[in-house]
Amino acid sequence: MPEKIQRRWPIDMDSMILAGILVAILAFMGFALGDSFFNIRNISSMVSQIPEFAFLAMGMGVAMITGGIDLSNVAAMNLSGIVLALCLTSSRLAGGVGIWGAILIGAVSALLVGVACGVFNGLSISRFGIPPIIATLGSMLFFSGLGVGITNGEGITGLPEQFTRLINMTIVELPPPFLFMLAVFVVMSILAPRLTTGKTLYMYGSSRVAALFTGLRIGKSLALGYALSGLFAAVSALILVGRTNSIKVGYGDTYQLQAILVVVLGGVNPDGGKGKFGNILVAVLILQILQNAFTLFMFTPYAKKLIWGGMLLAFMVVRTLLEKWSDRRKIRARMAQMAEGA
Amino acid sequence: MTATQTGRDVILRMDNADKRFHGVHALKGVSIELGRGEVHAICGENGAGKSTLMKILMGVYSADSGTMYLNGKPVHFLSPRQALDAGIAIIEQELTPIPDMTVAENIFLGREPMVAGLFVNYRELNRMALEVLARIEVNIDPHRKMKTLSVAEVQLVEIAKALSYDSQVLIMDEPTSALGEKETDILFEIIHSLKEQGKGIFYISHRLKEIFRIADVVTILRDGEYIATRRTSGLDQDTLVSLMISRKLEGQYIKGNVPTLTPLLQVRDLVKRGRHEPISLELRRGEILGIYGLVGAGRSEFLESLFGVVKPDGGEILLNGKRASHRTPYDSIKNGVAFVTEDRKNSGLALILSVKDNATITSVRKYHRGPFVNRRRERDDVSRAIDFFSIKTPSERQLVRNLSGGNQQKVVLGRWLLSRPTILLMDEPTRGIDVGAKREIYRFMSDFASAGNGVIMVSSELPEIIGMADRILVFKDGRLSGEAARGEATEERLMQMAT
After folding, report:
1. Does domain A11-298 have CATH number 1.10.3470?
2. Which chain B residues contact residue A211 at CB under 8 A?
3. CA-to-CA separations, B83 to B25, B90, B110, B165, in angstroms, rounded
């Protein structure tokens, strides 16, 4: 019977390592900081900060599983946040459909803007063959440019409190965005590796040539994948706008590097084809706890950047070393096989 | 200088080279010697051990046993670098240029003349390249990037590169496969002048006519065994072919299908410029159609056009008499076509994904309605494929890269089984896999055709194509050069049509 359990609940190395790190960090926090870390206020502040970043990380995860990257999702988040804020602050709209109508219209428009940003990326990658890193770098500049154009680079504040209250309320001590985030992680973990589009993207990420010869609809799937990244960016915008009661181009810029960091930390192969959303969630939690610890230890922002950058590089080095070790075995086997074929 | 019993002046001698790979006995005690000023051809079918032998000489592999002597002294190379330093260079069959570097940089890669040990002296580099190219009377600007060169020009640059090492022994593995007649003539002139300089040349080619034109001596290998060494002057082509081909037992092929006369697939003048000429053919229900030809004859390219991997320039495809459009592999699969590619590790499988993911990838759509996935059906299908081909894997979750070559190939077949095709395109379906797995693949082909479907099989292995195909088409230089029905196809005849 254990074999059957193993099959249904496969435990992979990445998950175990991540869980180990999470427990170790929590233990360290308890030991080093005690109550100043484990108190309701600190934890609920962390819980409210996690979702907006987690959605960006999930979008990044989708892009990186395809072997690409999405450098534009923070810019897309800003752009949809601006659209949302404009709807919410428009007295004409509120006068016409009421404040709840305006919130609904604003939220839907923001989500549509996010999806449009993603489709734009997906098409420029699949249709025109632009490498993802360049395509999304370009669209990042383009989306922020649009945002600056709309707002003249100024912040939008003074949003109706109905909206901020909606985002910041709690259900059993937990804010709705956090619960929603957990639900989305569960759905993504279950569906991404099973649905056609998900399978196509994993396959495409692990071997483009094989995906081509397998007759997969690569263009459509890539567009959907990046659209999902855009949609998540928009969800992130809803939360960010509600939490800060304002929006401005440049909000959340530090999330961009962190999203890449957390996705790589979560075991997504930057070359594509491999990655689990559950692991990304654990990595997000780890990052958030560290973030919180840095604040409690009163590190300067520069020290934080130094540590994040160092972590990303160190993680890639360890990963490369591990892969080199297994590659060496693979190459030996492959050469033997080539000789058999020769 | 070593004088041997034949009184020849021998540069290189290999005694009793033996090599096994994972139980495959690739080379069984082969001995060979290369004389000064001699062009020594090595002949044999695919899998005869030619490349393995050459790779041992070059230090790519080390032999399990056997000794090698260079100018009478025993040598043992641990890497191609050491072989190069000792004066053995190779022109490989697979070209490996660096496309974004110039001709000169490619020729002297890693040996560039330096200024102050830091900077490349480009003027000197280009002068040296020009000199090497002039030596073989090739007029290519050394400043050009490799990617702007034609395949023939790339081949000539590779030849120049090998010559630039000034080695005493030169190994040429299918050097003319990418060359036209004019370039081949140039190459042969070069070989003549190398002979006069007293160098020794190992020459591997499938083109028998070339061997009689250029080689002094020919050694024949078959299934890793040494068969004979003959002077070409006292040999004719038929004798050479009969020495090369093995009389394998009919029993290893499983064939029960009987072709009908109903056309299943008709191809009319399908053409893709630069890859293959207009090709017309017909595949009937119940038929296994073989396509034979040398490497580079356009066989795989034709299958890729047929499957929609590349878009053909013209021609039409009829399925059951109706026009079908194969603009992408997606369309072809919908029309019931499946394609088992030649290079399963690259174009066939996603190695870092599981057996299950690779097997179900073309048919995932079947298993879900909206967000709901029928995992039981999916798992049943995977187990069906695993059972059907007796794929040896600990579980469906095993990563494909951990399976053996034969089992990987069966995963590819399993995938296509699940997509329910009526036409199966197979490119070198049994390359690099063991005999047991081969038999299972032959059985599948036969059963598949018997059920009223059709198979197009491309193969370079003569016994296999004769053993399995009902009709054999021969490709040469991108066009159809002949056809033979089952029963009238012999290895000699097919090889004559292909060369």
Report:
1. yes
2. 350
3. 24, 10, 16, 11
